[in-house]
Amino acid sequence: MALADNAHQGIIPVPAALGNGDDPERNLYWGAAFGVRTFFRKSAEWHETFIFEKPYKTVLARSVFAHRMQNVILIADAYQGREIKRALKDFLSAAAGQRLHAGEPATCMIGGVVWCSPEDADIVAYVGHDGLMDFSLEEVISGQGDAKRSAIVLACASKQYFASVLRPTGAQPLLWTTNLMAPEAYTLKAALDAWIAGESDEQIRQRAAAAYAQYQKISTKVALGLFSKGW
Length: 231
Description:
The chain is built from six helices and nine strands. It is α/β, with parallel strands linked by helices. It has a domain at 24-175. It is globular and about 40 Å long. The relative contact order is 0.13.
């Protein structure tokens, strides 16, 4: 995810502290109450095992979470807000099964293990502003290997904007959106909870919509219309 950034993204401006793309701790998408790191840290199901500051040039923070009941690891990266194009490219590269940050020294090593996004991840997710509303990507990122990953894209109208760039990666869209939305972490957590429980793609969509309806104080019917699965 790219940190919310009033100065470098086409978002509706938010308060300065929340929209400072150089400050993960207070950022809307990372450190605020419904930001990815804060929300997962406070959940009963996940435990933050490591936090790294600036593991790579464009990544200001990385949190590694372990699920308390299942053998599932979540690696969350907070890209500098102005680096949203790089964040999107890296998301698509991860969806394609490519190694990220190749050739760039990592500063996130514990016990000789580099905690980085694995090339064989089951799910890759992008959460934040839909940068494809502001710019186009020049290159096509194609899938590597035979593994089929699932992709979650929690950004405004992501199905419309991401379909053409996600398809070549070979990843299958597990959850994305059809209209404007608030890309906050409760939706991601609900989707992952359902996936970990072995629920169907439709049940995952319903769980995500129910969480969104709860926190946004809208009807479940309206929320269901916002989320889509598959092509």
